Amino acid sequence: MRLTVIGCTGSFPGPVSPASCYMLTATDFAGRTWRIIMDMGNGSLGMLQRHIDLSDIDAILISHLHPDHCIDLSGMHVAVKWDPRGWPKGRIPLYGPAAINEYLSATHGLDPDPGMSTEFEYHTWTEGEPVQIGPFRVEPFRVVHPSKDPYALRITCNDREGHTVFSYSGDTDLCEGLVKAARGADLFLCEAAYQEGRDDALRGIHLTGKRAGEAATEAGVRNLLLTHLPVWNDPDIARAEARSAFSGPVGVAEMAASYRIYPRPTEAHPVTSTLNVVEVLDPPLNTAIALPKPELEELD
Question: Which SS3 state, helix, strand or coil, does residue 41 take?
């Protein structure tokens, strides 16, 4: 299973990264490659097209209904509905909170019936009820954030490389649902929008790097990858906070980087770098702002 960071800036797009958007890729035993998108925040639709053709998307998973996590679905609707060449596939399976149809319809002033249901095949999250998408088993867990029905996602994958567990926090503060979603994950992609000593009075909204580390420790994860840092946050501070509470490997997500997620070490799968930058998408020649190169961190 491979994680690709399409966008990782917290709360609104930054100068070199869109808001939250991630892609998981895996190849099943029949040799078919599956691609699922997690969240589509501001600016992500354009960057996503540098990685894949939009018609290659097998499903989209939305953690909660805030613009920095879902507003570019509005543009995705246009791409599917109005392409003069015709959309080559059926409706895109879209999983999210119960109000997602009404939310997206309002972005275009549409009546929710039919709204965007001609482009999206809507599925509503129910806590604890998993859904199967190719080799991916996705289970939503309710978390704590000032949005209706916010969820963290636990995604297990059985493919040719073995059995792997990935967890995505969405937006949340420390809570039971977050720990359940992350339990035993090979990779925990966790938000760290706040900073210790600066945002202590703000609870029930976001995590600090330290609280992300505490959640990782309680859940027994293997690797922690921090994300959703706003432009005013220092990644080194977030990393240091997380390391103060979590003894395992810690990284900070880098835009346009891909990470290969390995199974837990066994006799069949010896100890390998579970999380490492395996590919970075180079910017086109006409890119106005140079994209930063990720640190090549070797993690256990």
Answer: coil
Q: Is 226 exposed, middle or buried (0-12, 13-18, 19+ CB in 10 A)?
A: buried
- CB contact at 8 A, 209 and 196: yes
pLDDT per position as a tens digit, 140-149: 999 999 999 9
Average confidence (pLDDT) over 75-86:
96
Q: Are 77 and 120 in contact (CB under 8 A)?
A: yes
Could you give the CA distance from residue 299 to residue 249 in angstroms, rounded to a whole number? 5
Distances from the Cα of 41 to the Cα of 31, 35, 44, 94, 202, angstroms: 31, 17, 6, 15, 23
For the four alpha carbons of 52, 54, 57 and 62, in that order, the dihedral sign comes to positive
The distance in angstroms from the start CA to the end CA of the chain is 16
**253 token code pair:** 């997500």
